[in-house]
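To whoever is on call:

I kicked off a structure prediction for a single chain this morning and the downstream step that reads the tokens threw a length-mismatch warning. I double-checked the sequence; it's 116 residues and nothing unusual in it as far as I can see. Pasting both halves so you can look.
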Amino acid sequence: MARVKGGVASAKRRRNILVRAKGYRHGRSTKVRLAKESLVHAGKNAFNHRRDKKTDFRQLWIVRLNAAIRDLGYKSYSTFIAAKAKAGIELDRKVLATLAAQEPEVFARVAAKIQG
């Protein structure tokens, strides 16, 4: 059987790494070893930041709700959420924050229903 050399496959592997690292600065876009390491870190950060994005949005909704709630006379966000749970209203923070930002009169009605 003839000997198979790996030059074509190796070149393809290196080329694919450099294609994925296109746009990176300095040697990271031209040197395979640096590009490979940069791609590993980029993937790790992308994974972690997809998780962080969920936390960031939840914090944003809480801030928006707190501002809207205090305008309606509630003492704090936590008392509003506790009253919401006690009233049995199952709207989540995302929906409530959207209502507070885009439909303040509807949010005021929901808050009045929660206040009882």
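Update from on-call: the warning came from a stale cache, not from the record. Cleared it. Sanity check on the structure: The helical segments are 7-20, 32-71, 77-87, 93-102, 104-115.
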